[in-house]
Amino acid sequence: MTRTRTPGISRRSSLALMGAGAISVAAPWVARAQAKTIKIGMPTILSGRVAQLGTSSRNAVMLEVDKVNAAGGLAGRQIEMVIRDSKGQPQEAARVARELVNTDGCEWLIDGEASSGSFAVHEVARDLGVLCVHTCSEASSLTADPKQHIPNAFRCVRQGIHDSIVGGSYAAAIAKTKGLKKWATCSPDYAYGRDTTGEFTLYLKRFAPDVELISESWPKLFQPDYTEVVTKILQAKPQALYSCLWGGDLTSYIDQANIYAMFGQMEVFAVNMADYTALTVVKNLPKGIHSGNRYIKTFPATPENAAWGDAYKAKYNEYPTNWSWQNATAVMFLAEAAKKANSTDGKKIAEVLAGLTIKCPFGADGTVTMRGDDHTLVGYAIGWGTTIPQEPYVPEVKAGDWKTIFELEAEWKKSKGYT
Amino acid sequence: MTELEAGRTRTLVPVRGDAGLQRYRDVLIALVAFAVLASLPLFTGSKALLDLVIRCSAYGLFATSLNLLVGYTGLTSFGHGMFFGLGAYSFGLIMQKLGVPIPVAFVATLAITAVVAAIIGAICVRLKEIYFAFVTLAFQMLIHSTILSWASFTGGDQGLRGGIARPRFLGIDLSNHVHLYIASCALLILGLLAMRQIAQSPFGYTLRMIRDNAARASFLGIDVWRAKLTVFVLAALFASMGGMVMALFVSGAYPEFAYWTISGEGIFINMLGGVSTFLGPMVGTVLLLLLNDTVTRFTEYHGIVLGVVILFFALGLRKGLLDFVAEWFAHRRDAGEGR
Fold first, then answer.
1. Which of A270, A282, B2, B128 is the most buried (most CB within 10 A)?
2. Which residues contact B45 (CB under 8 A, 6 or more apart)?
3. ipTM over 0.85
4. Would an 8 Å CB–CB cutoff place B30 in contact with chain A?
């Protein structure tokens, strides 16, 4: 008889396959927790286009963890970091975070995820009730939105809204003295780019009401060619340009805009310029670009900050990134909280962390605070300055005023319906 | 009498008898598989194992539904991930904005997916081969871009935030890990059984005929366009189910769910497991997830390892794992009969 169906597999063989699968699945999952060391899990991005986010975060965490361990550990327990790649995919970030807690026996999480991944890890923290410190996501809503609030999650990261308030007031002061009325913007076309640019122009106009926005460009994220954007801006002839392009996008943009001698024709405000990842990569760094501080070892201009930057460079042969200081600060917070609580119990640590102020090389006044009501970092060094083509790249940074930031942030929260 | 007609006359009666028997056998296997999976939490406290099975359910439904298109109908879709994303987003948004019971959101999501798939399918299935592949990819990118741009509704690139509420229904509490696990297993088994029935039905054989020779099917009076559209919509429904399982697992929905890489993973899973057997994609899913989870534990250079595995399957075996096993069994049986 002719067989009319394609050959399938028999029940016996499928059962055998399922059995073999079950055995191979079960083997690696034998959770073992050692009471002496405390494991801290860290999902982050170690591969792909923004792998530097993960590697520089990992470097900073290990730098600080080594110090804590050398000083006796957390309440007498040595720290063991378990750091794993999420590839920047939220579903992987969620899986890795759950695996770190459920299988590897990690008691706390340091979440080195950006954007959507941090929200995925946040849900894992909500679900498992594990202590979690976000260290890379700058999205303001992660902590500002009360719907997101959980008692066991904290954010030790600079915030988009803080940058916009400081940037807006700094730019407005320069706009007034130099008479810059016609402005253009050029930012990446995704939520961060749109939100940050919107907030920056909001505060710019608030402090300098006669400013006029005459051109907007929204290149795609990771766009390789910026010619049309550059020519569009040149044709509009603005007196000043704002951009929140970052990383490789920003450096490509500057290299391409240099060909058109753009930087001589207008004042440029690029909030993400003053980060070594961008400063050291641009071929001919133009003089006089205004930038917010990401990480720069000359701001805050203290010996502690300079020493930290040098120690990092000595160990890893590259300068730290913005992500580095944030991750280092997270470890400092956890260490101080464990000392205060004299415990490594997640709940107790969370209680101590809320409202905790610690000494920190990256603080505006030598300290930073984990604000109690929304569990977010405040009091960190934030400011703007102008670039020069060689080290120290941004010799002088004008510090932002935290009193103004708090006032305007409260207003912004109200307008968003967060309070 | 043509060769085809002769073949059909000769096999008509036995095939019908076989089909009935086979259906019982399939249901039995499904019941046993469900019983085995559902009893797993009794034997192991490993949450990671349960997580793996939940993720296998999501990807397994998605990959097997893709095989309905690729393996059974010969429609290589590069955009099947859009329905995975659509399922996750529709379900998440309905739960967040309307707060309806979970079964209502589930059915509503399937209805939305059916409508969207019918519209997109009506345009795509007229095309063949590479054109079909690329137009489905284009629609996927359209949906992905819409999710990114419509930030006020979808949360943009940060995804649906604030978690998906999981109210109890019929005594089932999906915020409980074990309940979620059993519900995912049930959806997987029901979905696979339904897809198996579709594949083994006369409609399923019509699809195979279209795959092998669409012109001949058309001359026999089959409305090829309608059959292709039907399977396109059906496959979308199961992919959407997979998306819902994933949304429940991560308690959210993210634009990556609708990105082309998800479709790529679906194709890769099919390559790994094989497209000529029904369970091939399921085997591929388990293989890929196990491989991914194991390799990422040890190295961040997982891309190299996965690449080598693809090369091994593409150049070494030249087929999926289950295809290889099935052929080996068939070869052995034939050799046995020949003796």
1. A270
2. none
3. no
4. no
